[in-house]
Amino acid sequence: MATAMVNHDHQNGRHSDLDFKLTIRSMQFDEIEPAVMIFSRADLNDSLNVVQSYYESDPSGFFVAIDEDSDKVIGACAAPMTTHHTRFLGLYCVEPQFQGLGIGMKLFSKCMEQVGDDNCGLCAVPSKFKIYKDRAGFRQQEGRSMVIIEGKSPNIQSLRTAEKLDQRYRLIKLMADNIDRYESLIEKIIEFDETVQLDNRSKLLRHMFAKTTTITLAVLDTMTNDNKIVGYGCIQLDPIGRSMPGPLYAIDPLIGEVLLSELIRSDGRFSSNDQIAYFTTDNSPETIRWSLELLGLNESCRCEKLYTKFIPPFNYNHLYCCHSPDFAC
User: What residue stretches are annotated with the N-acetyltransferase domain (predicted)?
Assistant: First the structure.
C-alpha cells in the first residue's frame, strides 16, 4: 500500500530541517522489522512474515532511510518483483517526526530508480490517488480496489467449518515443523497458486511456508488421480497482534469460507484478542459479505490499484483474501 508521507508540522519533536546525516540505501534483513513497525505506527499494517518473504524473494527492491547520527531506520519503501515482470510498490513510510523533509520523496525516487523500465503497481490510498495517477506515472487504472477489512470478531462460529465440505475433500495443515514431510503438497499448492496468479511464485511461497509462525491450510480433492489442490490459505500475525489471513485462494465460495474459518480456528493466538485484519478486492462479494454480515468486521478503506505500463493478468475468480496489502493480491 502506498501513501505519500508529507507533513509540514514540525512541532512536538519534529525535525524542521535535515539537522542530521541522512542515508538512503538498500535494506538489510534485520531492518525489515523496524520498517514494518514504522508502517504500523501510520495505521498501516502488514505481517512481518509476509514482508520478510517478499524481501527474501527479491532483496534488491527494498530501501531504508537511516538517521546516521542514531543509526536508526526512520523510513522505508519497497518495490520487489512480483509476477509478470511487474514490481509492486509498498511499505512506503517515514517516522512522523521526520516527515515533511523530503525523505519520503527520496525513498520513492530510489525505488522508482530500481524499477527502471519494469512495470510497477501500487494500491493508492484515496487521498493520494490523483497524485500517483496524474503526477507519478501510475496511469493504468485496473478498475479494482483492495478492500481493507478489520475489527474484533467473537463470531467465528458463524462461518462454515470443514464438516460442511463434501467427503471428497481433505483438509491438511502445513507448518514449518512438518514442512519436510510435505514436499509433494507444497508443489501442488504452488501449482494451484499459479492458476490464480497466472505466473509461478515458488520462491516467494517456499519462504513464506518456512516461517515458524505461519500456518498454512490446503484442501485436496481426493477424487482426482493426483489429489489436486482446490484451495489454500495462510494466516499470520500483524505487528499489533491481529490475526491476518492471506493469501486465501479457492475454486468456490464454500471452500473459501471453510478455509477462512479453519485458519482462524487453527490460530491459537486469535483467542487472546479476537482481532482480525485482512484484505480482499471489491470484486470478491462473498468475502465482503462474510466480513460484514457474519463476522461483524468493518470495512476501513478501499485503495485503487494502479500501474505504470500495463495491468498484469490475474484470476480474480479464485481470490478471497489478498496476499499482502503492500505487494498486491
Answer: 22-166
Same-domain pairing of 299 and 171: yes
Render 247-293 in DSSP notation, one character per residue. Answer: EEEESSHHHHHHHHHHHHHH-GGGGGT-EEEEEEETT-HHHHHIIII
Say what the pLDDT of residue 154 is: 66
Task: Kindly give the parts of the chain with pLDDT less than 50.
Answer: 4-12
Listed in sequence order, the DSSP H helices in the chain are 32-41, 48-57, 103-115, 129-130, 183-197, 202-209, 253-266, 285-289
What is the pLDDT, as a whole number, of residue 17?
65
5: in domain: no
The single-letter DSSP state of residue 81 is B
Phi, psi of 12 (to 5 degrees): 55, 45
Q: How far separated are the first and last CA of the chain, in Å rounded? A: 11
Does some domain include residue 8?
no
Confidence at residue 42, expressed as pLDDT on a 0 to 100 scale: 82
Number of domains within the chain? 2
Q: Quick check: pTM over 0.85? A: yes
Are 117 and 194 within one domain?
no
Residue 171 pairs in a beta bridge with 219
**Is the residue at 3 inside a domain?**
no
Instruction: Write b or e for each residue in 202-236: b if 16 or more Cβ atoms lie within 10 A of its Cβ, otherwise e.
Output: eebbbbbbebeebbbbbbbbeeeeebebbbbbbbb
Domain range enclosing 222:
149-321
Same domain, 128 and 191: no
- Give the CATH number of the domain where residue 50 resides: 3.40.630.30
Reported as type and span, the H/E element at residue 150 is strand 140-152
Residue 213 three-state SS: coil
What's the confidence (pLDDT) of residue 209? 96
Q: Residue 225 and residue 176: Cα distance in Å, rounded? A: 27
